[in-house]
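Why does residue order matter? Because the sequence determines the fold. Keep that principle in mind as you read this record.
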Amino acid sequence: MWVLFWVVAVLALLVRGWWGGPKAWVYVQFIANALGLVFLAGMVAFGALAVSTGFDASGLVYFAPGVLSGGLLLAAGRLLSSGDVRRWYGAD
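Structure:
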């Protein structure tokens, strides 16, 4: 059920960007950067908490999807803020 929710949420952002013009793409860029930082910070905090409480280090592999998601969201935010992309959607 949560997968369906997130698919719909991401599609709504993309549709908003496609139909909403330059301001919407700036909004999508902001959301991608913000969520990327939140995901990465959360995974680092949970990882530090797990290691400090004696959690088995082999279990840290379960944090990989959160780290990967955060990194990819940050990459998407950075790509949307590049000069070529900003010229494409007309925010310059």
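The chain has one domain: 20-89.
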